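Notes, p. 3: input format for complexes.
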Amino acid sequence: MAIENEIKESFTATEITLPDSIKLLFDLKDKFNIQDSNAHDIIKSIKIDDVESNKKRVYLYKIIKEHLNSCQRCPLYSIENHTQKVAGEGALNSPIVLIGEGPGFDEDKVGRPFVGRAGQLLTIILNKMEIRRERIYITNVIKCRPPRNRTPLQKEIKACSNNLEMELSFITPKVIIALGSVPLNYFKPGSSITRDRGQWINFGEYWIMPTFHPAYILRKQGKALNKVKWAVWQDFNKAVNKAKEMYPEYKYN
Ligand code: URA
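Output follows (253 residues plus uracil):
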């Protein structure tokens, strides 16, 4: 009896809140008068390359950004060196999502992910793979630049996970490329990027391919540089080939 009362008292209706992604799904249904009641079918209808689906994607992206811009879950948004939150960008129906660590100096100023030196290298890698950057989705584990570009703290990652989950729950990619240790450890805590890169991780519906962060490539020289470049090239190839196998109709350029 005591336990029953304890549960009743601790679990009041006001504490039961719907996840933001579900709220957004209802919102989308209302806005576009969607009859499907199954979340999977609604999300599938967002992925088609036609005018109606594109309208839904534009709407979703706007709300995801608004949701992010109102985030105050950790103190990073209020820190002096912080200019703005940096949302992910690209195609919301992409079978591939690239996830980095968090915005750096340039990203914080411009408000877009991967626009600095590391981002330019990433764009070159993608172009070499005949992928236009706009045809995939690029984001970060955390959306606010940490002071002096330090590695995000666990509590910041946890607080920001709501934003990343929101993005992933609509894009539902086939393959995620985890760029460096922070996104790798987000999906598989206790991992090491040097040990685990290039090896698939199956995470629910997603296949995750961990590889080195482009900033790591930029720090290498000589033979070490060639080795790292080759490793990243192989990892990207594995990831893109798998995504193409799983979703052959998608156009990357
Ligand atoms: N490094 C990251 O991890 N993300 C960016 O957006 C830029 C640099």
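DSSP finds eleven helices and six strands in the chain.
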